[in-house]
Design brief:
The protein is of the alpha+beta class. Helix content is 49%, strand content 10%. The strands form four sheets. A five-stranded antiparallel beta sheet has the order 1-2-3-4-5. It is globular, with a radius of gyration of 32 Å. The chain starts with 5 loop residues before the first helix and ends in a 7-residue tail after the last helix.
């Protein structure tokens, strides 16, 4: 792909705030000079992700990842550097200029091409939905009469129609210049593996209502397709009511929550998200003015999805179907919710009813009535697993208790476990609290409970000493070009322990300055050879450093390097003396002279000129 000009990259870096880049992935709150939030890379309960807004860098203590806005996007979206630059430029409407290398400018990275392709397909399906055609009219009738949604909502969400005969989408995509690779990878077509040019793509979705699935940034990455009377009999998935796009470079269904891109924007402080079963349930919530609803992608909720939800709210209201299947789905997700530290309540529907029907008939008022009767998770587990009429001491009670114990054991918080056992004893009024505690401990000793999450290290303070002279000098050099020049003019790179990560970085930096090749930090970062080096460098950039007395700040670690180097030379001389034959007087005298010279050097360490 064509190389973006350095000036464009710098312009993008100056104009885009890293806080804006991370906003779709996690909520940040000010913590002193920095901002703190839950890790976008790992599921966690204690915030360990920090952004330094002035330096536009981040440090994630849970994963060890660190970097700038480009590095963040590379890690989150699995992109090359140039692709991350293009993605950010597109997202923040910053124009890019490319090096004149003769490559065609319209050729985009695959990921960016797939995003453009999905936007084009979304518009195409929506135009088919709106078209003056008998099938299109039938699909609109299904939307308004069968599903009882207004056409305005279809326009708002770009609801579409995949023509039963396949339509013209493949031809239109080729005319727009989308590559054969993009047609292969987008998931919208069946294409023979041997058809490398994608000459005969067959549409995956035919005669179905098309619901775009968006990522947290609002970009279409996949579709859910609802079966209708127009779905042809020869459709391989004809019997499936709903089918999703297959997994692609853009879409992994277990990592996406439908509607989250909207819901996260409508959360006030402390407000919970509402978890419903399907996309149409979520759309019904929006139609009725309930804007904080999300849904999984037609499968059982996953731990990753709950961790994603947890980044935006630590509470969730679960609104599932009122039948036995809905109860089972709720019980399956309950241990995962406790594991991710999510506080859940259950809005219980009457048996046989579903959220779509409830909201369609009663609107937001019906939901408010459910809020007033919501069950906490312990109460829900007891009502489901130990329903009224369960015989005390029966095998059914034992099985129900063990299942509740297994749910409680998923929490890493001793306080939550104690509170849950107390409430369980209260719900089972005839059961002694201490006896219940002993039963739980016996149950827990027979299974392996997840080890508590290691406490995340707090961000390093300026006053905290770094572990080596190399790390101290590297920190100073990264924050001051003037001092970096002084360090490189004083320190011989042979003094530096190049076997450590900080020593290797300091050596590279000194050599760049001494050879007059220093062109700024960004060029230096491009010289780094591993993610370990980049993460360590950015972890230092994320620190604040005080340089009130620069000479003393620099002189101490420089002299420490020098003394260590001289003492190492002394050890080598001592070893040579031990191995020199006693009758070789001349060599012994020469080694002793060198040792005296080294002692003199040790008493006179180098000064630094600022």
């Amino acid at each position: 792909m064509p190389r973006v000009k350095r000036s464009s990259i710098e312009n993008l870096r100056q104009r885009v705030s890293l806080l804006d880049v991370v906003a779709p992935y996690t909520q940040m709150k000010r913590a002193g000079a920095q901002f703190r939030g839950l890790s976008p890379f790992n599921a966690e309960k204690t915030p360990s992700f920090y952004v330094h807004p002035e330096k536009n860098v981040f440090m994630d203590y849970s994963s060890g990842n660190a970097g700038d806005l480009f590095r963040f996007v590379q890690l989150k979206e699995n992109l090359e550097f140039g692709e991350a630059v293009e993605l950010l430029a597109e997202r923040f409407s910053v124009p890019l200029e490319y090096e004149d290398d003769g490559m065609p400018r319209e050729r985009l990275s695959l990921r960016k091409e797939l995003l453009s392709l999905h936007e084009f397909a979304t518009d195409y399906y929506h135009r088919c939905f709106q078209a003056e055609h008998a099938d299109s009219a039938a699909m609109r009738e299904y939307w308004t009469a069968n599903r009882r949604f207004p056409l305005e909502l279809a326009d708002e969400f770009k609801i579409g129609f995949a023509p039963a005969g396949g339509g013209k989408l493949p031809d239109l995509l080729r005319q727009k210049g989308f590559s054969a690779e993009a047609l292969h990878q987008c998931g919208l077509f069946y294409i023979n593996d041997h058809d490398t040019e994608a000459r005969s793509p067959r549409p995956r979705f035919r005669g179905r209502l098309m619901i775009p699935i968006r990522d947290v940034q609002g970009r279409v990455i996949a579709f859910t397709a609802r079966q209708t009377d127009l779905t042809p009999q020869d459709d391989p998935s004809r019997e499936a009511k709903y089918i999703n796009s297959p997994e692609t470079p853009l879409f992994k269904k277990s990592d996406v929550l439908f509607g989250l891109e909207r819901a996260r924007q409508h959360l006030s402080d402390g407000q919970s998200l509402i978890l419903v079963e399907g996309q149409l349930d979520c759309l019904r919530c929006v139609e009725k003015g309930i804007l904080n609803a999300v849904a999984p992608q037609g499968t059982a909720i996953t731990e990753h999805q709950l961790a994603l939800l947890r980044r935006y709210s630590n509470r969730a209201e679960v609104l599932l179907d009122g039948d036995r299947a809905g109860q089972k789905a709720a019980l399956r997700m309950l241990p995962l919710a406790l594991k991710t530290g999510l506080d859940v309540r259950f809005l219980c529907l009457p048996n046989g009813s579903d959220p779509d029907e409830l909201l369609r008939e009663g609107g937001a008022d019906a939901l408010e009535a459910l809020y007033r009767e919501a069950l906490g998770w312990v109460e829900f587990a007891v009502s489901t697993l130990l329903p009224a009429g369960t015989v005390p001491g029966s095998p059914e009670e034992r099985r129900g208790l063990d299942e509740i114990f297994s749910i409680i054991a998923q929490s890493e918080s001793a306080v939550i476990r104690e509170q849950a056992l107390s409430e369980l004893a209260l719900r089972m009024s005839r059961v002694d609290r201490l006896a219940l505690q002993r039963d739980f401990e016996r149950f827990s000793s027979g299974q392996t409970r997840p080890a508590p999450q290691a406490e995340q290290p707090a961000p390093q303070k300026v006053s905290e000493a770094l572990t080596s002279a190399e790390s101290q000098l590297l920190l100073i050099a990264l924050h001051s070009d003037r001092l970096a020049h002084s360090i490189s003019n004083t320190v011989d790179h042979q003094w530096v322990n190049g076997k450590s990560i900080e020593g290797g970085l300091l050596r590279k930096l000194i050599i760049e300055f001494q050879s007059e090749n220093w062109n700024g930090l960004d060029d230096f970062i491009e010289l780094l050879e591993s993610d370990e080096e980049r993460n360590y460098l950015y972890s230092l950039l994320n620190r604040d450093v005080e340089l009130d007395e620069p000479e003393q700040t620099v002189l101490g670690p420089i002299q420490a390097l020098y003394r260590r180097h001289v003492m190492q030379l002394q050890k080598e001389l001592d070893l040579k003396l031990m191995n020199t034959p006693a009758d070789d007087a001349e060599s012994i005298r020469a080694l002793h002279r060198q040792r005296i010279e080294l002692r003199s050097q040790l008493r006179n360490p180098p000064a630094i000129s600022l």
